[in-house]
């Protein structure tokens, strides 16, 4: 499982800061935030399900994990990812994949 940084989209951002990451076979993590958005791209010929862990609770009850289906040859954009719902003890959002083959992602927020 890889932990990736959150890129900042701004007037001075360079291409390498905004380059997507290849999904890891064991899943990935990124820093939670109310201003963080996730972009998922699937270049394979079949849909891929991305499961976002929700370690948070509401009044002691578990919150169901969130499944995002990324269509074949398509993309999905979701967010924000507040830490109180999606962050683990370290404040990271955990992603798991039905397959990582052909999947890339980026976690970004808008800066100045």
List keywords for this structure.
mainly beta, 112 residues, 45% strand, five-stranded mixed beta sheet
Q: How would you portray this structure in words?
A:
The protein has one helix spanning 83-86; strands at residues 2-4, 7-9, 21-22, 28-31, 37-42, 48-52, 57-58, 61-62, 66-70, 75-78, 92-97, 103-110. It is mainly β. Strand 7 (57-58) and strand 8 form a beta hairpin. The longest helix has 4 residues, at 83-86. The relative contact order is 0.36.
Short description:
The N and C termini lie far apart (31 Å). With 112 residues, this protein is mainly beta. The longest helix is centred in the C-terminal third of the chain and has 4 residues, at 83-86.
Q: In terms of topology, how is this protein built?
A:
Layout: E1 2-4, E2 7-9, E3 21-22, E4 28-31, E5 37-42, E6 48-52, E7 57-58, E8 61-62, E9 66-70, E10 75-78, H1 83-86, E11 92-97, E12 103-110
Parallel strand pairs: 1-4, 2-12
Antiparallel strand pairs: 3-12, 4-11, 5-10, 5-12, 6-9, 6-11, 7-8
């Amino acid at each position: 499982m890889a932990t990736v940084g959150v890129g900042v989209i701004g007037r001075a951002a360079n291409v390498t800061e905004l380059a997507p990451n290849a999904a890891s076979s064991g899943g990935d993590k990124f820093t939670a935030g109310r201003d963080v958005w996730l972009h998922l791209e699937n270049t394979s010929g079949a849909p891929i399900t991305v499961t976002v862990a929700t370690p948070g609770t509401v009044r002691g009850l578990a919150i169901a994990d969130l499944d995002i289906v990324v269509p074949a040859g398509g993309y999905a954009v979701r967010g924000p990812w507040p830490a109180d719902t999606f962050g683990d003890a370290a404040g990271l959002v955990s992603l798991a994949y039905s397959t990582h083959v052909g999947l890339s992602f980026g976690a970004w927020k808008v800066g100045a």
